[in-house]
Design goal:
This protein has one helix and 21 strands. The protein has 343 residues and is mainly beta. The protein has one domain: Glycosyl hydrolase domain, family 43 (Tachylectin-2, Chain A, 5 Propeller), CATH 2.115.10.20. It binds beta-D-galactopyranose (GAL). This is Glycosyl hydrolases family 43.
């Protein structure tokens, strides 16, 4: 054993002979429902999120939920909330180890009427890249604390890691917009999927070429089926939408639907989840579907396991989407990595 006199220790460390500080541990597998730490060692804070792949890097955007969860004293339903902090962004090359890039759309603290004031609600942010304009465009659910506003908010940036400039909110196609996602098709057209008509009907709305507004072309889908939490992907020329039922922060059964054309007609296939608690979506709710770049027919299904009384500590449930002979399943795994797609 080498004995190093105490007074020599700082010198030896300075010379790089001993590690000065243990690096944050590298993540080597997905562990759905466990605390997932970023490269600084802090729990990842990106709820109701989505991923964007851009030039070799994945960016994960989500609700940065900080601080105490409360149920407002006027609440007539379980609208548990944290104050709006903003949208957080993380970057990664391997989907397992995420570096915090900061709050890319922060709350606006000094204007109580602003959509992004802490007293409001900001949910389900998704970012898409517009090749024509070179802009990164964020769509999010912008709400009042009592969820009566039901609007979509849009923000833009020149860089995937922000900062984003908030452009404002509106009701797309003059109807309510709550749970939402955006999807870019292979031809560059982008669509917003949003729960509307009091969450009863899913609208699919073609966006303008700059992705900043609805184009005016839309369809009503899953009419009176109360689908929420839409997550969309394309496989083998067909469109798929994973969604949840409508039970607030509490879990329910997921459903996947398929369409030949993105604006419909959509046909419900059933619940793709398998394994323990598959009928409760593993106590989680869908938020996004991310293709794995460089692997064929490989997707990650992203869910949130909401902790309604401590929303900041809500966990992530990321699972592989397995496609066999055209059948799609999302099987539970306690621990897994991308090698699953090579089998
Ligand atoms: C869920 C929705 C969440 C959040 C929550 C509030 O149905 O998917 O994003 O809005 O309700 O209770």
């Amino acid at each position: 054993m080498v004995y190093i006199a105490k007074f020599l220790l700082p010198v030896v460390m300075f010379m790089g002979l001993l590690p000065i500080q243990a690096q944050a541990q590298k993540n080597t597998s997905f562990m759905p429902g466990e605390v997932w730490k970023d490269t600084d060692g802090n729990p990842i804070n990106a709820h109701g999120g989505g991923v964007l792949y851009h030039e070799g890097t994945y960016y994960w955007y989500g609700e940065y939920k900080k601080g105490k969860t409360i149920l407002p004293e006027w609440a007539t339903w379980e609208c548990y909330r944290t104050d709006v902090t903003g949208v957080g962004c993380y970057s990664s090359r391997d989907l397992l180890n995420w570096k915090f890039e900061g709050i890319v759309l922060p709350a606006v603290k000094d204007d109580p009427n602003h959509d992004l004031h802490p007293s409001k609600v900001l949910e389900r942010p998704k970012v898409i890249y517009n090749k024509k304009t070179g802009k990164f465009v964020m769509w999010a659910h912008v709400e009042s604390a009592d969820y009566s506003k039901a609007c979509a908010g849009v923000a833009v940036s020149d860089s995937p890691a922000g900062p984003f400039t908030y452009l404002g909110s509106f009701r797309p196609n003059d109807v309510m917009s709550r749970d939402q996602t955006v999807f870019v098709d292979d031809d560059g057209r982008a669509y917003q999927f949003y729960s509307s008509e009091n969450n009863e009907t899913m609208y699919i709305s073609l966006l303008t070429d700059d992705y900043l507004k609805p184009s005016g072309r839309f369809t009503r889908n899953f009419i009176k089926e109360s689908r929420e939490a839409p997550a969309v992907f394309k496989y083998n020329g067909k469109y798929y939408m994973l969604s949840s039922g409508c039970t607030g922060w509490d879990p329910n059964i997921a459903e996947i639907a398929v369409a030949d054309s993105i604006m419909g007609t959509w046909k419900t296939i059933g619940n793709p989840c398998t394994g323990p608690d598959a009928d409760k979506t593993f106590y989680a709710q869908s938020t996004y579907m991310q293709p794995i770049i460089g692997k064929k027919d490989a997707y990650i299904a992203m869910f949130d396991r909401w902790k309604k009384k401590d929303l900041e500590d809500s966990r992530y449930v990321w699972l592989p989407v397995l496609i066999k002979n055209g059948a799609i399943t999302i099987p539970w795994h306690e621990k897994w990595n991308l090698e699953i797609f090579d089998k």
